[in-house]
Design brief:
The protein contains ten helices and eight strands. With 297 residues, it is α+β, with helices and mostly antiparallel strands. The strands form three sheets. Strands 1-2-3 form a three-stranded antiparallel beta sheet, with no helix packed on it. A three-stranded mixed beta sheet has the order 6-7-8, sandwiched between helices.
Length: 297
C-alpha cells in the first residue's frame, strides 16, 4: 500500500493484481488515487502518507491498523500548520455540526511582527499562533453540462499538467490564475477556460511567447482534462461536448478583475475567494476583452 500511494498506482498491490483483472477498472482506480493525492497536497502528501503507512505497517502487535493508517483528524484553526492543506468544517451553537463549507485552504505561514495584516500590540508580548490562509479550491462540481461533474481540481490538474509539459519543452511559465464558464449558446456546448500565465520568477511574459503558447493551449488542456476526468472524456467521445477553448489573457487581467469588478467598500481583498466559475455576462465579456491578440502570429 505504501508503494501504491507513493506512485499513485494500484498495480503495486498484490491484492489488486490478483483480484481485479479488468485493466480499465484498475486504470480508473489509479486516476481516482491520483485525484485524491492532488487534492490533499500532491507529491508532498504522497511521500508523507506513504512513509506513515510504511511505519505503521511495521508495528505488528498494535491493534487498529485502519484507524492508524487513515486517521480522521479534526483541528482547530489555531492548530493548523504552514505548508498543509485543509478542508473547512464548521460547528456552531445554533445547530451546525461539522458542516462542510466546501472550501479547501492552504495554510501559508503564521503572522509575525514583520506583517501589517493584523494589528499587534506594541509591547514585547508573545504573538499567538495566527495562521494566514489562502483558498485553494472548492470541493464539488465546477462545470457540469451533461453529468460529467468536472471539478475545480480536474481543471486545475489539467492546467498544471499542461504547464508541466511546457516546462519540459523549456518554456518557463507558471499559472497565475484561471476561471471558466460553460458556453451553452453553441452546439455542442463547450467549456471555456481563461488562463493567465506568469514566468517562473513571477514576472510578466512577453506577448510573443504568449501567442506561441496560445496556439498549443486548446489541444494540450483538452488532452489533459480528458485524462483527469473520464466522464468528460466520454462526453467528448460521443460528441455531446465540443472541444474546450483555453484562452490566454493578458498579464494583470485577474488582478484588474479583482480590483474593478469584485472589490467593494464592504469587502476586504483577502475575503474574496478565487472566482473559478463566471455566471455574469459582463464578467465573461471582461475576460474576452483581455485575451491575447493572436492576429499578428
Amino acid at each position: 500500500m505504501s508503494l501504491c500511494i507513493a506512485s499513485t498506482n494500484f498495480d503495486h498491490s498484490s491484492l489488486v493484481r490478483d483480484n481485479i483483472r479488468d485493466s480499465k477498472f484498475r486504470a480508473k482506480l489509479n486516476r481516482a488515487l491520483s485525484e485524491v493525492t492532488i487534492e490533499y497536497g500532491g507529491l508532498k502528501y504522497q511521500l508523507e502518507r506513504a512513509e506513515h503507512i510504511r511505519k505503521e505497517g511495521q508495528k505488528k502487535d498494535v491493534p487498529g491498523i485502519l484507524h492508524r493508517l487513515w486517521p480522521i483528524l479534526t483541528l482547530l484553526i489555531s492548530e493548523i500548520e504552514p505548508g498543509n492543506r485543509y478542508e473547512l468544517v464548521c460547528t456552531t451553537e445554533t445547530g451546525l455540526v461539522r458542516y462542510r463549507l466546501g472550501d479547501v485552504i492552504n495554510c501559508t505561514r503564521f503572522v509575525s511582527r514583520a506583517d501589517d495584516l493584523v494589528p499587534l500590540p506594541f509591547e514585547p508580548v508573545d504573538i499567538p499562533r495566527i495562521p494566514l490562509i489562502s483558498i485553494a479550491y472548492r470541493v464539488g462540481s465546477l462545470l457540469d453540462i451533461f453529468g460529467e461533474k468536472t471539478s475545480e481540481q480536474h481543471v486545475m490538474n489539467a492546467l498544471k499538467q499542461t504547464i508541466g509539459e511546457w516546462k519540459e519543452q523549456r518554456i518557463s511559465v507558471d499559472m497565475c490564475d484561471f476561471t471558466t464558464y460553460p458556453k451553452l449558446d453553441m452546439f455542442p456546448p463547450q467549456y471555456v477556460i481563461f488562463l493567465e500565465l506568469i514566468d517562473e520568477q513571477g514576472c510578466k511574459i512577453d506577448d510573443q511567447q504568449l501567442r506561441v503558447l496560445q496556439k498549443m493551449a486548446d489541444y494540450e488542456v483538452e488532452r489533459q482534462l480528458c485524462k483527469a476526468n473520464e466522464r468528460y472524456d466520454y462526453n467528448r467521445n460521443v460528441k455531446k461536448l465540443s472541444p474546450l477553448t483555453c484562452i490566454l489573457v493578458r498579464s494583470g487581467t485577474f488582478s484588474t478583475f479583482l480590483q474593478k469588478e469584485l472589490l467593494t467598500g464592504r469587502v476586504n481583498l483577502i475575503q474574496i475567494k478565487p472566482y473559478r466559475l463566471l455566471k455574469n455576462e459582463h464578467h465573461v465579456q471582461f475576460f474576452y476583452d483581455n485575451k491575447i491578440d493572436t492576429s499578428s502570429c
